[in-house]
Amino acid sequence: MKTNSVLRLVVPTVIALIVLTACAAWAEPVSIPTVSVGIGKASKPGDVATVLQIFFLITILSLAPGLLIMTTSFTRVVVVLSFLRGAIGTQQAPSNQIVIGLALFLTFYVMSPVWQQINTEAFKPYKAGQLTQEQAVDKAALPLRKFMLSQVREKDLALFLSLSKMPRPKNRDEIPTLTIIPAFMISELQTAFQIGFLIYIPFLVVDMVVASVLMSMGMMMLPPVMISLPFKILLFILVDGWALVIGSIVKSFG
């Protein structure tokens, strides 16, 4: 029970701190900090406790990129783009770096209203001294929770509420963040697979047509994929596929 209570406190705090840092970078030019590290003897027990707290914070921050990715639109975008590359049949074009880079910038685009709201309601008041650190963290977590709850399916949310064996919450504000995050991830994967299925259909039709033509011509030894690939690329270009796919992904978060 103590571990669960610590996680329920730490995870929302880490997420909010990450977003607050992003808002700070969004609002002001990035300056290069200086870091100095020294080793000395601890003169009192409080020094040892401070060192342990620093090590604990570094350990938690090592999980921060994963928490940031899994609580934003990144999962849906990168999975759909991976499905698109597989449907066309180009194994290394675009490369993994390009797919991940495009997914990151689309994530920044989709999440920018949320981060701007956090910047306005949490970071700026905290910087001005109007909010304490705890109040700023709570304010920063609210828009992110609202975004995840707007995208999560009730079925997935009910699943994790039943698995947690906690009392039924009266409203969405009482749902723990640790319950919302896995439900949101599953919902994102479900939506991404649905979009991926729709993407596969036209390219599958092209593969079937090419395979039928080759069989009718008696070219059964010629791989259909080798012939259908240029036609699938041509089809994707003619219908302005990138605009359609990217537009559909962004609109799916509306």
Describe this structure in words.
The chain has 254 residues and is mainly α. It is 76% helix and 0% strand. Residues 1-7 and 24-28 have low confidence and may be disordered.
Short structural summary:
Helices cover 76% and strands 0% of the residues. The chain is built from ten helices and no strands.
* Nearest-integer average pLDDT: 76
Number of helices: 10
Number of strands: 0
- Gross morphology is elongated
What's the Cα radius of gyration? 24 Å
The run of helices and strands is HHHHHHHHHH
Q: Please outline the major beta sheet.
A: none
Strand content: under 5%
Fraction in helix: over 70%
Uncertain parts: 1-7, 24-28
The span between the termini is: 38 Å
SS-based structural class?
mainly alpha
Write the layout of secondary structure elements.
Layout: H1 2-27, H2 45-61, H3 64-70, H4 74-88, H5 96-127, H6 133-151, H7 154-164, H8 177-216, H9 224-238, H10 241-251
Helix pairs in contact: 1-5, 1-6, 4-5, 4-8, 5-6, 6-8, 7-8, 8-9
